[in-house]
Amino acid sequence: MSIILDRNKILDASVAVIAKHGFRKASLTDIARLLGVAKTALYYHFPGGKQELLHAVIQREEDIILEEMRRAVVSQEDPRKQLRSLILAKLIHFHRLRELFDVIIDVGEELFKIYSEHKTAFQTAEREMIQDIFQTGQKLNMFKPSSNIMRLASSIQSVLHHLELPLVFNSREDMEKEIDELLEILFYGIAVKQN
Fold first, then answer.
1. Around Cβ 35, how many Cβ atoms within 10 Å?
2. 43-62 CB burial, b ≥16 within 10 A, e <16
């Protein structure tokens, strides 16, 4: 019986092997073994080898996450809820992958570093979604006017980026609670108003 191999099957197997061993220790041999094919079959689809495969894995996950984030944003009318939904959609996706592949924290840290260094259109698209939420909130007079929405969106994105790894390794309930607390501070501050 011959195995029909396509890019998605290879990417699925790659995610499983990378999640188990980490990127440095994962090999094309491991991926081929999981698929039941010779390593040369992987080179047919990914002539650039392991690096090209990693790029394709990251690109596919980014596309999936961006679509989940877009759906989450449009499911809400209130910009505050849109921002919460956007953040949770991304974190829940990572959390689901972590649980599905039983990723340990060391491998998570390695993958997070690789992902962080992988500069793509994803970061721009994410920032643009955050900017749109802030612009909508300003139009609805829910957020203070800002002279530089792009800088504000970049700042929020940067804070979230640094929190992603620790949050993804929490329970989903704790993750949502921490996001709600962060958004409470963002929307209402921590200072008590003086009369």
1. 19
2. eeebeeebeebbebbbebbb
Which of 51, 181, 67, 177 is closest to 117 using CA atoms? Answer: 51
Per-residue confidence (pLDDT) for residue 146, from 0 to 100 = 84
Low-confidence ranges of the chain (pLDDT < 70): 1-3, 100-101, 116-119, 195
Whether pTM exceeds 0.90: no
What pLDDT does 21 receive? 81
What is the set of domains in the chain, with CATH numbers?
7-188 (1.10.357.10)
